[in-house]
Structure formats: structure tokens, C-alpha cells
Amino acid sequence: MAQSIPQPEKSGRPDSTPPSNASPDCLSCGACCRTGHDGRILVPEADLVRWRAAGRDDLAEAVQPGHFGYVGFATRADGSCVHLGTVESANACQIYEIRGTTCRDFEAGSEQCLEFRRDAGLD
Fold first, then answer.
1. Whole-model pTM?
2. 60 domain-assigned
3. Which is nearest to 47 in space by CA: 26, 61, 30, 33?
4. Is residue 15 domain-resident?
């Protein structure tokens, strides 16, 4: 009797490991949010205006001098954004729904993302 050979799933991979070209899961990483020690996580003026209009002066004031004439998100001594970390996840954003433009526009899996991950020793 011939023995049945297990067939791979439709993805072509026999297990649930994501393909190497899959974007990293932000909630298991957070590397980009840990790079702001010198004001690198920029906050455009439009974000400051938006937060103030929403009654969130606390966000508009939680900044430090940044690059290119902008301000950057305030950071902790380890360089991580002061808004990084929630009860649910150390890598979740406390202000995710109203986060800054720089954070909204950042793409998981982009060259910059992968560079931050390498610098953090994740890849």
C-alpha cells in the first residue's frame, strides 16, 4: 500500500511561518519607536495644531527639539517614545488613534523599518 505524502498548505509552506518577504508585526517589534533619542521621530506643525484642536495640549507639549526645524516626540532615557507601551503590549502605541503623521506614514517592512530592526538586533 502506498504511503500518503503530506501536501503543503495552499501557501506552499508546510507550516504557519510567514514568508520571508512578509512585513514584520509591529506589535512584536517596536524598533522604530525606540529610535527617538535625539528628536528623530518628527512631529510636523500640522499634528501640533490637530492635537490642540482636539483638546490634547498634553501631546503638543510632549515634544523635544527635532531635526530640520521640527520638534520630535519626547523620549525616555532609553530613546523610546514616551507614548510607547500599553498594558496590553510593550510595543503598542498609547496614542495610536491620534498618532503623528510620521508614525502614520511609516511603513512596516520598508527599508527604514528593516534598518531599525537590524539596529535593534531583531534581524
1. 0.77
2. yes
3. 61
4. no
